[in-house]
Automatic annotation (TrEMBL), chain B:
InterPro entries: ChsH2_C, ChsH2_Znr, NA-bd_OB-fold, Thioester_dehydratase-like. The lineage of its organism: Archaea, Methanobacteriati, Methanobacteriota, Stenosarchaea group, Halobacteria. Pfam families: OB_ChsH2_C (PF01796), zf-ChsH2 (PF12172). Residues 9-44 form the ChsH2 rubredoxin-like zinc ribbon domain. Coiled coil: none annotated. Residues 46-105 form the ChsH2 C-terminal OB-fold domain. SUPFAM superfamilies: Nucleic acid-binding proteins (SSF50249). This is Zn-ribbon domain-containing OB-fold protein. It comes from Natrinema salsiterrestre. It comes from the Archaea.
Amino acid sequence: MQMYIIRSGLLYHIVPDTTTPAVAGIGTVPNGTHSVPERDLALRVVRDALEDASLELSTVDGLYMPAPRPWTPQGFFSTYLLHVLGLEVDRSLEVSTGGTSGGNAFHSAVSDIRDGTVETALVLAVERNSIVETTGPYFDYILKSFDAEFESPIGMTVPAAYAQSMQRYAYEYGIDRGDLADIVVKNRENGAANPNGLFDESPSRDDVLDARLIADPIRLFDCPAPCDGAAAILLTADDVDESSSPQIAVDGTGYHHTASHFLMSRETSITELPAVRRAANTATDRAGVSIADIDVFEPYAPFPHIEAIVTEELGLAERGRGVDACLEDHTAPDGPFPISPSGGCLGRGHPPMVTPLLNYVEAVKQLRGTASTQVPDAGRVLTTAEHGHVNGVTATVFATEV
Amino acid sequence: MEPYTRPFWESLRDGTVLIHACESCDERFFPPSPICPHCHSTDVDWAETTGRGTLYSFTRTHATATAFDDELVIGLVELADGPKLLAPIDASYDALEIGDDVRIEAAEYDVEHDRGWLEGYPFFAARPLD
């Protein structure tokens, strides 16, 4: 059957996928501090994902993971892991694209299953931030991600980039800085209910607004808390049915990168994130659905104004009204478009290489009906991952198979 | 082969801020590059600016990399000639507002941060105009 879509008045031919990848199994460790080597965390989540999927390790023929951070003691991690596991694969890769690394690793696995390169893909992420000094070496590493000649010598930090988009967002749309705190509180309350989250309780709105400054006007609880974490996901071709867990289909994937780096956008304001819109459109088109068909959103939104802007880019709120969507409880777990019922990276802690996989895991749990904050009858979930100041984005649509 | 951006730093030392102009699409852009990011033409050249612009956004850090002071005032400057660039702001954070008139000027660089071949060259900062 030939499939077509019409977008912007143009007719596009869709080549249907012959194989829709399915999530066969998941494994995670709680976000927190783990005083064991990354190897042990990786082996734990791999074992748990195999058990969840009722699959033998020998069926895995592809390994996909974000490149471990430079402070990880074990180098050549994927090669080392294949040796330890006694596993031969037809494809293995480590991806390094900032916050989208986990998303791109996952999408590579999806592509390989779609075209038959592999049949059972293991997507893995592991990261320990508890072993890096956040006061020196971490900042020195981050400094290199800015323009080495024109920006790094200024002493930039990641919060200092997001602080400027927050400042500009409040200026352009007359946003009450205090209202952004409600987005933090919503995510922290959801995160406190998540047993795999970093926090047991939520700060109040006043706590958020009185916390110590990180980069004006961003304060401590506006930032996602770095922590240790690990996750594994097993993907299979949907005609391979060896699992005992309910299978969840990966119905659509999309990626877009705008021609910008951190705050250096040209035609677009830094208060817009067009890559989110483009990637989500591609993913929903591929899944044959629209944003209105999505029941739950688990985006990668590391600061509260970014969640508000993502809400706008997805078309769930008008430009400048993303904060209102939260204030009016539209993004609450029982609202019309729940955003981050798991807490997201603000509410559950943030190992950035692992966070995209944790979003996938939360999508799977929603579709299995086992999420810590369950959205009733969830049938489709959209997640995103972002790179830098959200100029590169992966979007993924998960759905229960019907 | 010479670093492509050397004329920027040489000119800055002499007090003039250079950007790039595309002869094909007439856009101005920064950082300087031999390929226009707007139309991808290679028909590009240096263009002088007054360094004047307005403050597009700004922040103040409270912790950063080892070599730097914890508190840095940093902002995005939209040059009157078009492009935006990130710059240290030579002013108190509390005195700033978006839209303030500023000028990019050469500034002595005394941070122990390795700038490679640019060691010895000044950096730049945005200074508010009254």
